[in-house]
Every structure is written in structure tokens, then in C-alpha cells.
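Exercise 7.
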Amino acid sequence: MKLNILIILITLVSLKSNSQVVKATSTPLIVFNSNTSSEFTSDELNKLKTVYGAALKVEILERPIRVLAMKEILRNRVLVKEITDPRKHKPCPMLSEVSLFDAFAPKLKRDAAFSPNSFNPLKYNFEFHKPGFQMFRVDDSNYFIIIKPQHYNN
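Solution. The predicted structure, written as C-alpha cells, is:
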């Protein structure tokens, strides 16, 4: 009898010490800004067509979550900023080091000259779902591209 109780106690202690405690980690919800409720602008549609070509409808426009994500990227998460003071320049990867996202448009090319007003961030393989802020410098310029994380709500 004592042996049976001892075996049961050892088994229970063994099970308790080998069990894993899984902590529930909560990922913050992605909150889309209110400006994502309006339709794509013609400029945004042109940027999407440049990158997705004939697959635009199937890959983006027929998928409401992707529509929201694209609007959020184009309207709220990518910032092009000119920093003229060299003392404020931070070391970061160059735009030329980022590959093109040419899965749907194999003939996609980099722009010959950079224009902050017409820059299409969708042309590049930026890691839009990577946590934290990202920064890239446009080669031979004072322009920086800042990508806000998807959980940044401003």
C-alpha cells in the first residue's frame, strides 16, 4: 500500500515538473485608420496596377482585408521624409538594396529618378509586417523612407 502511494506521488510530481506552462501572448489588434474607408484614389489604383498588373482584381480588389491593408500602407504607414541636415542622417539600408516585388509584373523597373510625390512603395519587397519602424535611404539623396509597423495607429 505504501509502495502504491509512493509510486502515485512520484508520478504526480514527475508529471507536474514536466508539464509546460504556456503563457497566452496577445498580439495587438490592427486598427485601420478612418481614412481607409474611402475608395482607392486614381493614383493609388495606378500604383497597384503597376505592381499587380492583370492579377490586381484577384489578388487585391476581391479581397476586402487586402484592400484595407493596401490603403493603410499607402495612406498611413509609408512616409517619405527629406532630412537635409547631415548630422540627423541615421545609418540605414539604401533603397537600391531592397529588391523589387515583381512577382506579378516581371518587367517592373526601378524609377530612373526618385520623386517623393510619385514614389510607389508597393514596387519594393519591404517587410510591411515586420514589427517596429523601418527606415531606408534613397540613394544619393537626403530622402528617407520610413515604414511604420502595422500596429502603429496614427
